[in-house]
Amino acid sequence: MIVLENLTKVYGSTVAVDRVSLTVPPGQLLGYLGPNGAGKSTTVKMLTGMIAPTIGRAEICGLDLQRDQLAIKRIIGYVPESGAVFESLTGREYLEMVGRLYGLADALIADRVLKFADFFELGRDTLDNKLLSAYSKGMRQKVVISASLIHNPRVIFFDEPLNGLDASTQLMFKTLIKNLAAEGKTIFYCSHIMDVVERTCDRIVIIDQGRIVADGTLSQLQEASGEGSLERIFNKLTSHTDVEERAEEFSRTFSF
Q: How far apart are CA 137 and CA 219, in angstroms?
């Protein structure tokens, strides 16, 4: 479903993504991890057609990223890290707009909007009458996630999708994406929340300074690194092995 071959993005003298190659099959829930500035969001922005790669190529569902951008956008869903929306619209207006951009019939849009509203407990009065500018961060994120799924995409990109969501909604969301993967959808999941990735993802890719430094199941990464938790694996592979010692030293020397 997703194929990357030497995908690279360079900004001036900075290599943000450096020759990333991987293949993600149908139905896989891939966790894509890395420190701040490692190139996670840049990778996703290239795969969703927001920015062009400097070199390399990618395919989604057999479609070429450079030649077939519009066709690719019809079959993917995307939750950006920013969670930006048109704040002058109500929740319903925003979801209806997104549905129409994907060419869905009005009756189908109306049905799916109500289903998402009920699932995420948005409240129909809020959805109909409250502008998105007045939504809480969590409510707005629920609308963004709904918009990414309203057209039933084959491939879904999530960039920190749990931002602002409460614990119960996070649990519903994690169950939802596992079910979507079981139905054959491919999910590319970027996150800093290690325990979520550890519990939900079939495969984990870790990048550092734009390059892949690990790729495998959790058990494979544990065996290769000699570490038990994903958090410790991550810290070891991204050269942050002394984080606990640094925090202890800082707390001893800094007077609050």
A: 35
Cα gap 161→50, rounded to integer Å = 18
* Cβ 153 vs Cβ 185: under 8 Å: yes
Which residues constitute the domain of residue 243? Answer: 2-253
What is the domain-level CATH number for residue 131? 3.40.50.300
Q: Considering just the CA atoms, what is the radius of gyration of the chain in Å?
A: 19
* Buried/exposed 86-105: b ≥16 CB within 10 Å, e otherwise: eeebbbbebbbebbeebebe
Domain count, the chain: 1
Instruction: Compute CA 4 distance to the chain's CA centroid, rounded to the nearest angstrom.
Output: 17
Phi then psi for residue 114, to 5 deg, are -65, -40
Long-range contacts of range 233-241, CB-CB < 8 Å, 24 or more positions apart?
Answer: 233/206, 234/33, 234/194, 234/206, 237/206, 237/208, 237/213, 238/34, 238/35, 238/38, 238/206, 238/208, 238/213, 239/208, 240/35
Sign of CA dihedral 208, 211, 214, 217: positive
Please list the pLDDT of the chain residue by residue as tens digits (256 residues).
899 999 999 999 999 999 999 999 999 999 999 998 899 999 999 999 999 999 999 999 999 999 999 999 999 999 998 878 899 999 999 999 999 999 999 999 999 999 999 999 998 888 999 999 999 999 999 999 999 999 999 999 999 999 889 999 999 999 999 999 999 999 999 988 888 899 899 999 999 999 999 999 999 999 999 998 999 899 888 876 566 676 667 666 766 5
Query: Do residues 20 and 13 lie in contact, with contact meaning Cβ atoms separated by under 8 Å?
Result: no
215 three-class SS: strand
Contact 149, 77 (CB under 8 A): yes
